[in-house]
Amino acid sequence: MSRFLKATGPVLLASMVIVGCQTNNNQNNANNKEETKNSNQANQVKGTGFPNWGYDLQHTRHVPYQKITKDNVKKLGIVWQQDIMEWDQNVPNLQEDFPVVQNGVLYVTSAKNHVFAIDAGNGKKLWEWTPPKEVLDHLNSLPWQSNVASRGVAVANGNVYVLMIDNRLAKLDAKTGKLLKMVNFWDHVPSIKLENRYYESSAPMYYDGNIYVGSSGGDNGTRGFVMAFKADSLEPLWNQPFWTVPERGKGWAQGKYTGGGSVWTPMSFDPDTDMMYFAVGNPAPDFYDADRKGKNPYTDSIVALDSKTGKFRWASSEVNHDVWDYDAAATPMVLNTKVSGKKQKIVVEGGKNGKWYAWDAKTGKTIYDGVPFVKIQHSTPLSEQSKVKLQWPGTPGGETYAPETYDPETNYVLIPGINNPNLMLAAKDRKEIAKDNNTFPGTKILPLPENVDPTGNITAIDVNTGKKVYQINTADPMNGGLTSTASGLAFYGELDGTVNALDIKNGKLLWSMKSGGQQIKMAPSIYMVEGKQYIAVITGGTRVVVYGLGGKEPIPSPNQNAELQGAADKSVSVDPVKVYKSSCVSCHGDNLQGATGPNLQHVGKSMSKKDILNQILNGGGRMPGGLVKGADAEALAEWLSKKK
User: What is the pTM of this model?
Assistant: First the structure.
């Protein structure tokens, strides 16, 4: 599933879905040097920033910095922190943003695509960009976009590129934030528009003079695609998009709501060959498959294209016919590594089905065919509620969008895992898939039993053998992902707001510190400024927290976010039903009956108004904070608290 968040848990509202560098001569980071030759990230000072969504074009999230070591990591503290809402109270959550850092500037983007440029050394705001009113009005006009994340920007050659939720690509001046150009996808492909249930949640990727984008909205029955634009003019590079599924009514895609195959996380690139690799999401409708018989290619697959032409090279499926929502969601990594003792270039990825895979990068030949890293126990979802069974993993995991990291010194890949089941209820027939506001057709997820507690883990796999080296358990699902360093450390955040560092060789936890917020749902960005190494995370929905050696800033107090967001104007009359329909209906149904989010018809029995308001403002479980604010949030909480 490609919407912002999609899960349930035992407490209804609490889990609602409101959507090696020097050693081994690290070839992956060496390829990053090739980017300068190819005009990639031309303004980036070599070896200081975090220039791409996944650091290098291969998305290894492995940085060459060694100032923070296993011996001094315990000296880390907070260097600076900034709640973005102190700058702009209208900014929605930043929760799934992955900051890019170039030339000492840290760039973050929020839901609804506000962009901030921040001095990466001290947290000072350099500029803020707010989308034009016409864009924001468009976003607010339709309910199915209300939960959508913006997962980052691309920065290259003095420009910042950001995708608008409503299927536009904007180009900003990196020094001033001034809008230089914006293009509408529907001007080139008329069907790609918000009104047809398409939207954008990914970070765009810059490679060799071009910008590459994927699609979201596959769960709504849209047709997945990848498009490429020339970075200077924003004109299309290819004659047409690469479509991941057939046009509706052709091939296997029969039925009014059949489609899917979103590409909702960034793609990876190999500068040696100009090939690009991306993960493709699930077919739609979820659970109900009467109108999409067969293997449903290229859904739940890794696909390789020639980046210059869009020509198909190969594809490999992780699930041939998916009825569980088992996207290939996480961005694949391209590795120059050793397999069975021999050097080989490979592509690796962990799927939502809970299995990890590796393929030959040139041919797509399978090397490791599904190494399990979470509990796997599933059967065909049933349409009779009294007979539904727990499916492991559920729609939120094994591995969702949260990225892996690769350490060339050990030749280990670290996988962020999610042990979270679902009770999946399939539609009975074609009539039923058109219900629930026609959003996520065919999909309904029931609340988990009270005795089921979702957890997470981190699994280290030796790429040479494909075997697990170790697995450590985490109290919360691993929704954020990992970033590693040349000093043998891997950093990650957790849903309770803790930031951690582990020893990659043995999985031993070496350092932990609170962030002052919760719901860390991104992997840390690690960078250098004036010879000092920093680790940046986003916590509590809107706060950027940066750690460094000797940092002395106090841990920020929680709930500051709630005070800012919940400052309700009592003189304003709010219709809570209208608020619900604009912000909640897409996941919880037009009658609170639940769809991908849980049933809220009796939520007042288990949660007080205060609990509900806190949940709306601050988030919790897999719900982000700040989707509804102020008087709207208070009115919505009051209304829901009476649902008994």
Answer: 0.89
